[in-house]
C-alpha cells in the first residue's frame, strides 16, 4: 500500500491511513490490526456483537471524523474533546496557546491567526511602553526593566505580570476556538463539508500537509524567520518610548 491510503478489509474502500474507523462502512481497524493473520478466526469484525461501534459515516458539525483526524494528527482525541465541549457552550482553556502564543500558532500552521496575534502583541507592547514612559515621567520610576527591578522590584514584577498575564489568559481561552476555525476553513477550502466518505491519495496528502504540525526543523526555521520582525519592533518600541518621554518633557517643562 502507500503512505496515505489503506484499503478497508470490509468494504474495499480506499480510506485514510490514520483512520481508526472506515468512514464508509464503519468497520473498526484496530480489530484487523490486532489480528496477526488475515485469515484468523477471532474476533470476526462482521459479527455485529463484537463490534458495537458501527455507525457510518461518522461526522462532527458536517465534517467527517476521518477528515478531522487527518487534519489534527496525533492530538486528534484531545482536540475533538475540546471542540465537543465548545459545541455544548462550555469554555475550554488551551495551555499551549496561553504559554507559547505565537509559537503555538506557527507550530499548528495557523499563519493568518499568527499574523493577527503578532500584530496585536506588537500593539500591546507599544501601549505598554507608552504607559511606562508616562509613569516614569510623572512618578520618577527608572525606565527599562533592569533599572526598575533594582529600585522597585515589586513594581517591576507587577508590570511584567500584567504585561504577560493578560494576553496569555485571553489567548488561553481563545486558542481552541482559533484552532477550530482554522481546521474548519481548511476543510471547507478543499470541499470537505458534507461530502461522501471517499478518499483519494492526493486529498489525504493535502489535508495532512496543510493541517497537522510543523516538523522540528521547519519549526526552528519558521521561528527564526518570525523573530526578525519581532526584534525590529522591539527596537521601534524603545525608540517610541524615548519619543514619548521627549514629548512629555516638551509639554510639561
Ligand atoms: Zn469499510
Bound molecules: zinc ion
Determine the number of helices (DSSP H or I, runs of at least 4 residues).
10
What's the order of the H and E elements? Answer: EEHEEHHHHHHHHH
Uncertain residue ranges: 34-53
Distance between the termini: 79 Å
The helicity comes to 55-70%
Number of strands: 4
Describe this protein's structure.
The chain has 253 residues and is mainly α. The chain folds into 2 domains: 1-56, no CATH class; 61-251, no CATH class. Helix content is 62%, strand content 4%. It contains 10 helices and 4 strands. Strands 1-2 form a two-stranded antiparallel sheet. A two-stranded antiparallel ribbon has the order 3-4. Strand 3 (59-60) and strand 4 form a beta hairpin. Helix 2 (65-72) packs across helix 3 (76-87), helix 2 (65-72) crosses helix 9 (201-210) and helix 6 packs parallel to helix 10. The termini are far apart. The structure holds zinc ion.
Please specify the SSE layout and strand pairing.
Blueprint: E1 5-7, E2 14-16, H1 29-34, E3 59-60, E4 63-64, H2 65-72, H3 76-87, H4 95-100, H5 102-107, H6 111-139, H7 145-151, H8 153-189, H9 201-210, H10 216-251
The chain binds zinc ion.
Summarize the structure.
The chain is mainly alpha-helical and 253 residues long.
